[in-house]
Amino acid sequence: MLHKLTKDGLSNSKTAQNAALIAAFCAAFLAIGKLTLFFMTGSLIVALSALDSTMDMVVSLVNRKIVKFARLDPDHNHPYGHGRAESIAALGQGSLIIGGGIAIVVSSVRQIYDVLSGISLEVNHSDWKQIAFFIIAAFVSLFVTKWLKVNGLKLKSPALIADAEHYKVDFVTNISSTLALILIAVSGYTILDPVIALIFSMYIIYGSFGLVKTSINELMDHDIPEEIKETAKKIVKGTDERILDIHRFRARKSGHRYFFDFHVTLPEDLLFNEVHIIIENIENVLSSEFEGDVIVHADPSSVRPEK
């Protein structure tokens, strides 16, 4: 069977790809700007920030391919679709952010120890061009973060949401760098650089653990949030007034898609064709609402439902 996309799936795939592409362009702009500034000023903090923006650009370009692949229709090798590719990508990004945060923590602690031991830091952050550029970079990172988060939630894309978290880290890094540069330029206390970096790196690590946990839960078929389950049940009950009960309700999430499996109790005097129509209506409505797969089992009212 050939890979293909339905009309709605194709539209969502293009939207997700465009969101990732715009993020990549913004990251490229920041990377080039910071690299240029590094050659002008020789500032190491700018060079490190340029490396971070370059990494952001690469991740966004990879995500552009991931979200396209994840929205391909199921085939004979992947009967449940390709959605977990996004969860894997999100897990990788979360781990990458945590690794970078730990590296910053180690470097910050080492520099703080050196200062407390009487070793002075050779830092020159008196160039206000650096501060001005980091302020601009912070606004660009904030825009990309919001852009990816909105599209990620709208399209139920773990990869875009993870990328939004990545750019939020970049935003925090730009803000912390701006504060450090201003405080150092005004006060001359170079120890503020590693102290501020340590505080923000701990915040970054803390936030990234939530991203990793969510990705692992999806890969492990963790139960979906209770509010989504209740919304799904309400939709099912609203499809036909003859539905007496919903039981043995199970659900999981794979990428942007939800998979539902449950039983409904129907009056035992219904004809087989009537039951078939009710079940098909449930599956169509729920599939359309959550862009997923639905399996419904019908039980007659004479049979006591299993919880």
UniProtKB/TrEMBL annotation:
Assigned keywords, A-Z: Membrane, Transmembrane, Transmembrane helix, Transport
Pfam family, one: Cation_efflux
Domain of life: Bacteria
Domain Cation efflux protein cytoplasmic: 225-300
Transmembrane segments: 20-48, 88-110, 130-148, 195-212
Gene Ontology cellular component terms for the protein in this record: membrane
Cation efflux protein transmembrane domain sequence ranges: 21-220
Record membrane topology: Multi-pass membrane protein
Protein name: Cation transporter
Molecular function terms, GO-annotated: monoatomic cation transmembrane transporter activity
UniProt cross-references to Gene3D superfamilies, sorted A to Z: Cation efflux protein transmembrane domain, Cation efflux protein, cytoplasmic domain
Subcellular location: Membrane
Organism of this sequence: Fluviispira sanaruensis
Family to which the UniProt record says this protein belongs: Belongs to the cation diffusion facilitator (CDF) transporter (TC 2.A.4) family.
Keyword Signal carried by entry: no
